[in-house]
Write a structure and sequence with these properties.
The protein folds into 2 domains: 3-126, Rossmann fold (3-Layer(aba) Sandwich); 127-328, 2-Layer Sandwich (Dihydrodipicolinate Reductase, domain 2). Helices cover 33% and strands 24% of the residues. The N and C termini lie far apart (44 Å). It is an alpha/beta fold. The protein contains 9 helices and 14 strands. The chain has helices spanning 12-21, 37-47, 58-62, 76-88, 103-116, 130-140, 175-191, 289-300, 311-328; strands spanning 3-8, 27-33, 54-55, 69-72, 93-96, 120-123, 147-155, 196-203, 209-217, 223-229, 238-242, 245-249, 258-263, 266-271.
Length: 335
Amino acid sequence: MSFRWGIAGTGAIANGFADALGRLPDAQLVAVGSRSRERADAFGEKYGVAPRHRHTSYEDLAADDGVDVVYVASPHSHHHEHTLLFLNAGRPVLCEKAFALDAGQAADMVAVSRKRGLFLMEAMWSRFLPAYVKVRELLAEGVIGEVQSVEADFGLRFPADPAHRLFDRALGGGSLLDLGVYPLSLASMVLGTPDRITAYGTLGPTGVDEHVAVLSGYDSGAVALAQSSVRATLGCTARITGTEGCIELPFLMHCPDELTVQSRGVTERLSLPAAREGDSGDTAGGGLHHQIRHVQQRLHAGETESDVMTLDETVAVMRTLDTARDQIGLSYGRT
């Protein structure tokens, strides 16, 4: 069975996703939606989308009966609106992270998908990469003992441009939704929902969070420290420490190609390429094909959500983001 995909958006992540679709024999890119005829046509030409399926509105994409599933790649500020548009048109949805602006929006999206019996998942692609799959296996096997802490950061310095979406409060700009969601999602994967949260942050001239640290405490005694920044380049690494050792994720912790595992005095480095598979030199999409394959497997099985990135966990992570946002005085220009 082949799945016919439509993509809502034509930005960088949409292009990466389209590249990744080309790696899977049972996936087809058949439609694109954009608010610009020029961008829709350019994207369509690049990826072989027929002119009649190059839509200049998301409403037209939603009405395209040649589409089996939609990938929402619009800005954070539009995820709620666009996901509901496609769900209400009867289309399963993979929605780019961060899933929404807040937990209220996320819960609304989940409620509609469950009411309509349609698949919905946050595109937290890291969860499906070989390194993250291996982390879950190692933890389940007790290789590092009982987890005591998760430390992760993701920060890249961007020029402070008020016209860029990263510095636009109305579009959900700032470090938390773009970058901080990765270390917070890792902590959630390892430790679950925190019982206590303390956040510190710096807001820039446009009102977005430019540097944030979130300390989470758990009744088990474990702690997690997540940092994100668009003001400074951080180490972009992660470390999961247990009573018997640790697992280290190297630079670009959200898409690592290897893990370093220290357990009971023995250190091992595991090669787990994110983009390559087997002997193939193909790296198109940078590893996004893993999550696409997972979505298609769930759809083929008739499931309406992921068992790896569950909807309940997505909403829980959004609540953590909400708490951190409230504590540092950040809003997204919404009432």
